[in-house]
């Protein structure tokens, strides 16, 4: 980011917003925005409570399980759609529908089918993450150079060998982009699942704070979730930049 002809770190914008937040909070314009300094104090108090770490462990467990299943299932489905006209014609309308649909409305259906346990939360995470992973893997498979496909056929590669050694690696840039976006959407999914389904983990803490109008506590917990989403996005973006050479290798 350039400012007055000088390079300024992108993180500097966070300081600007933090200052604005503190000014609005100190002015007392609304009870919905307590000062950032007060929120940070409450964050330190919340982190020191064992219930926070129990909630974090539960949230992390369901999040990791759900996203792992979404990646393991979504990536091959997307690659199959990208390489098979029949599979693409059968599945693409459904994938597009779920991508644009209000997924939160489907959570009560999952709850009715699978109850109030962690299984429902995991399925909610999958529901939020898998569709964008499928679409990006499909886009990657459709971008593969025909010469790579012809080479696999010329050397007598089996379908599994072509998939595991050519399609997967050639489509890797788009696959990683889809995974990055899916993991961000999954953060929303795991919280919605905990709020609407089981009221456990961070969802349970949000329920307590909102019912008692503890805005400092709520913002402190939101900061934790924002930080986790930012770290996930930054980590995967870094991985994407390291494998950009795969995209160039797909050109004929």
The third-level CATH topology is MetI-like fold
Secondary-structure element pattern, one letter each: EEHHHHHHHHHHHH
CATH homology superfamily: MetI-like
Query: Kindly, what is the distance between the CA atoms of the first and last residues, rounded to a whole number of angstroms?
Result: 35 Å
User: What multimeric state do the chains show?
Assistant: single chain
User: Per CATH, which architecture?
Assistant: Orthogonal Bundle
Largest sheet: 2 strands, antiparallel
Instruction: Write down the overall geometry.
Output: globular
From the alpha-carbon coordinates, what is the Rg to the nearest angstrom? 22 Å
The number of distinct structural domains comes to: 1
Q: Structural class, please? A: mainly alpha
Content of β-strand: under 5%
Q: Under the CATH scheme, which class? A: Mainly Alpha
Task: Please estimate the helix content.
Answer: over 70%
Largest sheet: spatial strand order: 1-2
Helix count equals 12
- The residue ranges in which pLDDT falls below 50 over 5 or more consecutive positions are none
Average pLDDT: 81
Q: Strand tally, please?
A: 2
Give an overview in words:
- The protein is an all-alpha fold.
- The chain has a single domain, classed as MetI-like fold, CATH 1.10.3720.10.
- The protein contains twelve helices and two strands, in the order ββαααααααααααα.
- The protein has a two-stranded antiparallel sheet.
- Helix 3 crosses helix 9 (172-198).
- The longest helix is centred in the N-terminal third of the chain and has 34 residues, at 50-83.
